[in-house]
UniProtKB/TrEMBL annotation:
InterPro entries found in the cross-reference section: 6-PTP_synth/QueD, 6-PTP_synth/QueD_sf
Pfam families assigned to the protein according to its UniProt record, in alphabetical order: PTPS
Catalytic activity: 7,8-dihydroneopterin 3'-triphosphate + H2O = 6-carboxy-5,6,7,8-tetrahydropterin + triphosphate + acetaldehyde + 2 H(+)
Enzyme class: lyase
Name of the protein this chain belongs to: 6-carboxy-5,6,7,8-tetrahydropterin synthase
Native source species: Thalassotalea eurytherma
Family that this chain belongs to: Belongs to the PTPS family. QueD subfamily.
E.C. number: 4.1.2.50
Length: 293
């Protein structure tokens, strides 16, 4: 007997890629279970699937930075500055990325590159440990949203957030809709999606000097004036990141989807002062904010 749940959850995360650098991503999760019926004539209670399995998936990868542990461009080491924190040094073809974060902000994937097959295998191994004996098979399907228009991948962190959004390097794959005087502008959507393609979005309030940023000794030797550094203290711990400045977009606000929508609207209004601008900005799949200027 088989039991399935479509659209069980959406995982929003970022991952390190040797070619692209740090990539924000959003994948929809479907689950298929194979097994014998239990004493309740079920393979597994839908409530358990929707709550417990979703919670396992969220804990394993959601709002984390996924690390390809077999990559020769990656170095991970315990932080010498804070307990239960780690240094992450990564040098991609698209620039260097250096971080310090609490351990829980990272997911270590035993693979040379993070992709749907490697994350699927990782999640399958984690979830199987919690399944009852009558469940003999588990199939996890990860898939990106089918977006007809433009979209971008961005990475950010929200220091004021009490939950996992505070992690300094998690992200999303998002689409956007921009309207000029009520008419949709695919040209403006394309421009913003190009601007935020594989970008790190940071708040100018979180900028920190090279001297004060907390990174590995190796990273401190490598960062120079071409790098932007950001840091903050949040409930989960201390977060630091250094990114080459051509891979960052520093905004004059926090990077919540509400304020990013407003940021885009304000930037466009400066260029088109006589035009009514509406921005429908998405954060991952099926959620977002609307701003007008």
């Amino acid at each position: 007997m088989q039991l399935f749940v479509k659209d069980l959850t959406v995982i929003d995360f970022s991952y390190l890629c040797e070619q692209r650098g740090v990539v924000g991503e959003s994948w929809i999760v479907d689950v298929l279970l194979d097994g014998a019926l239990n004493e309740m004539s079920m393979v597994l209670d839908f409530g358990i699937v929707k709550k417990q399995i979703k919670a396992i998936i969220d804990e394993a990868v959601d709002h984390k930075l996924l690390l390809p542990m077999q990559s020769g461009r990656l170095a991970v080491s315990p932080s010498t500055l804070h307990d239960d924190h780690e240094f992450v040094d990564f040098e991609s073809q698209n620039g260097g990325y250096y971080l310090q974060s609490p351990n829980q902000a990272f997911a270590k994937i035993d693979t040379p590159q993070v992709d749907i097959p490697s994350v699927t295998e990782h999640l399958t191994d984690v979830i199987k440990q919690s399944l009852p004996e009558n469940v003999a098979g588990l199939t996890i399907t990860l898939r990106p949203e089918d977006i007809k228009g433009e979209f971008y991948h961005y990475t950010h962190g929200l220091k004021k957030h009490d939950g996992n959004c505070q992690r300094i390097a998690h992200g999303h794959r998002s689409t956007i809709e921009i309207f000029e005087n009520g008419e949709r502008s695919h040209e403006l959507e394309t421009l913003w999606c190009e601007r935020w393609r594989d970008i790190y979005i940071a708040s100018e309030d979180d900028a920190i000097s090279h001297e004060d940023v907390q990174l590995s000794s190796s990273a401190k030797e490598k960062i120079d004036d071409t790098f932007d550094c950001f840091a903050y203290q949040a409930p989960q711990g201390r977060f630091d990141i250094a990114v080459e400045n051509y891979r960052t977009d520093v905004v004059d606000c926090d990077s919540t989807v509400e304020l990013l929508a407003d940021f885009i609207a304000r930037q466009l209004k400066k260029q088109k002062t006589e035009t009514d601008i509406t921005v429908v900005a998405y954060e991952g799949v099926g959620k977002g904010a609307i701003a007008r200027a």
